[in-house]
Amino acid sequence: MADKPKRPLSAYMLWLNSARESIKRENPGIKVTEVAKRGGELWRARKGKSEWEAKAAKAKDDYDRAVKEFEANGGGGGAANGGAKKRAKPAKKPSKKSKKDESDEDDDDESE
């Protein structure tokens, strides 16, 4: 069975993927984290985002269509098919008292 489709990239991520090389060229020796930081600054300052938002909307439509097709073909649902979100939380174990808590209780007994 095929894997569930991956979520689409946001407009920012689509733009960053195309702009990453130019950011690196303009800032030789820049670290990966600094590329992302600089990209965020450039994206926030950017005026014409509609091109990238349109690409992101198209990617989301394609993703939604692919998910519907995936689910129609028997994908999703059970834990064996990657239904990690439906996994029950493990039961909480009763908390054990620490030695500090026990010594505090002993102190209370002595003061009475």
UniProtKB/TrEMBL annotation:
Pfam families: HMG_box. InterPro entries: HMG_box_dom, HMG_box_dom_sf, HMGB. SMART domains: HMG. Residues 5-71 bind DNA. Residues 84-98 have a biased composition (Basic residues). Signal peptide: none annotated. CDD domains: HMG-box_SSRP1-like. It comes from the Eukaryota. Residues 5-71 form the HMG box domain. Keywords: DNA-binding, Nucleus. The keyword DNA-binding applies. Residues 103-112 have a biased composition (Acidic residues). Residues 70-112 are annotated as: Disordered. This is HMG box domain-containing protein.
